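dumping the sequnces here before i forget
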Amino acid sequence: MKVAYYPGCSLEGIAREYGESLEAVARILGIELEELADWTCCGAASAHATDDMLALALPARNLKTADKTGLDLVIPCAACYSRLKHADKALRSGEKIEGVDDGYKGEFNVKHLVDFIWEKVGEKAILAKVKKSLGGLKAVCYYGCLITRPQKITGASDPDNPESMDNILKALGVEVKDWSYKTDCCGAEHVLTMPEVAWKMIQKLYDMAEEAGAEAIAVACPMCHSNLDTHQPEVSAQVGKQYSVPIFYFTELMGLAFGDPEANKWFARHFVDPGPLLREKGLL
Amino acid sequence: MTLAKVPEKIIPQPSLRRKIEELSGQKIAACFQCEKCTNGCPVTFAMDIVPHRLMHMLQLGLLDEALRSDTIWVCASCETCTTRCPNDIDIAHVMDTLRQLSQKEGIKTAQKNAPIFHSAFLSSLRRHGRVHEPEMAVEYTLRSGGLMGLRKQAGTGMAMFKRGKIKLLPPRVRAGRQVKNIFNKVKKSRP
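..and the predicted 3d for all of it:
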């Protein structure tokens, strides 16, 4: 299976282990990722806070390239996914966007990676590659805001209760806990602009994951991972409670279950070392 | 810390409501104050004016007060309000419209950091075609917190570097020129 792939800026930086693990997983599953030629930034939150046309034109430039490939476009970052999906929707409805000529064919789908893997690759293909079941690992799946919202744009069947990541992790053997905070907000860039506000939002996620009986949180977005993984000392200091919750990209858990020898390198990039938990479960 | 003062006596100004309706493309008059936006919002604890009240203020034409609020910057664009509004108002987009207007008109706000962040993000994007995270973070930190701020963040920066999360050289993209063109044209077409 061949798809077009839009990594987004974070996968070259703060989310390097997401890029590394998803490429390993794709290789194992036989998915050929064709990186979108000369892709550029989607503009993320800053473009839509600044100018409506900028917020459409920046992602649309990439859609123009994707349109020529005719391949489904897979995006691992929730924010990039949201911006490209907004622009795709606008182009399909005939809206005029700066820099895009008429004749957008749109003969391809824009998919977030987690939905793509569950819907297009599927349970059977995943199960066939599992070498080591992750039984005994208790985790919650955290999707964040933009994989499912707004429903008009994403087409999510239930924006409050997505299940693709839950299903993937269950196939790996993970004991997935149910919780009501799957699509709550991690605070996004507030972690820089108003950190005390973001830390409160992040703390709620740790507490609710713990209440659900989880020992770890799985994510599918660079921003969610960075916010949840990097700031545990600050959150702990703000509330006077010690947090040390391993945060995994769902692709890292897939790679671990598939027996990829590189998994250790991905985990070494985390701020909270997942080593102790994984060793305790006999998974590392 | 709010700079938004809501007057005691209000004379509704429908023209200002219509201005925001036009800019956002959203029918603000359709809001019937069910409070679903406020009840679902994860950041009301840090807001000076909760979302349904902000919508009511816009209906009355209290545009200056809305633009001075913390709320438009505290909103994290999580899109919960937009998803749940029974009257199909894209409230998160109305927040965007207010942020855009606030930046264009240079409105004084107590929330100074957010506009600095957006400007640092977009200037890195404009320069390289992609965002160079360390460059963006340094520009933001310097402009928002000065050298002291930069010193405070140095530890996190080093920790990121040790984990291989910082690329020292900026990305090189051939389409950089096209991205600059987008910025130039968008700027020109603004009223």
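Residues 25 and 233 of chain A are 31 Å apart (CA to CA).
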